[in-house]
Write a structure and sequence with these properties.
By secondary structure, the protein is α/β, with parallel strands linked by helices. It has helices at residues 3-6, 38-46, 64-72, 85-97, 144-150, 157-167, 183-190, 242-248; strands at residues 15-20, 25-30, 54-58, 77-82, 104-108, 123-128, 168-179, 194-203, 212-219, 226-227, 231-232. It contains eight helices and eleven strands. Strands 3, 4, 5, 6, 7, 8, 9, 10 and 11 form a nine-stranded mixed sheet that branches. Strands 1-2 form a two-stranded antiparallel sheet.
Length: 256
Amino acid sequence: MDSTVSETSLDLDALTEDEFLGGQLRLLQPRHGYRAGMDAVLLAASVPAEPGQAVLDLGCGVGTAGLCLARRVEGLRITGVELQPDLCALAAENAARNGLAGRATFIAGDLRARGSILEARSFDHVICNPPYVAEDSGQTSGTARADISKRETDADLADWIDAMLYWVRERGHLSLVHRTDRLQDIISLLTPRVGGIRVCPIWPKPGREANRVLVRGRREARAGMVLDPGITVRDPDDQVTPDMEAIQRDGQALDF
């Protein structure tokens, strides 16, 4: 490993190297605490980005969603903002290891600082996988690092969506993945500043309640809200469905 990782306070023995998109990406991430997985991959698959566009990933962690998206769409420029410097350094290292350093930039910073980090209205797409747990609910995680990733602390859901709106261009897209029980909060915060909202439920298995939603909207659009059929992760025999396999292993886009 090069100096990008060794200069952080992370113990190198506490890292794992994991495959995403069927091995198209190999990413370093902490062995313990919050670990990127299916949600980040689905978020990346849901973004209707085109070559030459600019994408901002808020709370990018080790860069999973942005790098999955960059692997799928050639010529895309990715910027990530991450509060935890150690994870930000890992994101930069991951971009370099996967030949994407020239198309990806990662910045350690607090999204509430906004103008001191990046210029407003700079991105065609802003994406995020924000902490799922409200500050005043649920149990704390085992580590401070995991708690920052999973639980709203100083920045709540309104701060995340305000930051997305600050950085997205007019008529640009906002995309996020969250727990289903936060959907009402998300819609309330987006409306009326965002239109053309589409909601895609993520069904764990047939007959089970959706536990995640992908939400996408467009700044200043006037179209109403659409509820998509959604995507089912596993079939009744607990096997990954063909649609999910195409996204998870082959890196295909989600028809959303």
